[in-house]
Design goal:
The chain is mainly alpha-helical. The protein has one domain. The chain is elongated. The two termini are about 35 Å apart.
Length: about 60
């Protein structure tokens, strides 16, 4: 996603040279895959943190 923003900001006039996530996955829905992975990792990390929160201070 950051590369897509960089490509849009820096290379506005070079459309054929831009390769975005949507181009790589041949679909505009391809942008959802990196977002889904990021959100999934965040949710799993939050779940683990909430589960171990009462004992975290003693274990560190």
């Amino acid at each position: 996603i950051l590369q897509d923003v960089r490509a849009i900001v820096l290379y506005q006039d070079l459309a054929p040279n831009r390769i975005t996530v949507a181009d790589a996955f041949d679909s505009s829905a391809g942008r959802l895959l990196p977002l889904g992975i990021t959100i999934g990792i965040f949710v799993v990390g939050l779940f683990i943190f909430r589960r171990q929160e009462p004992w975290f201070a003693e274990r560190v």
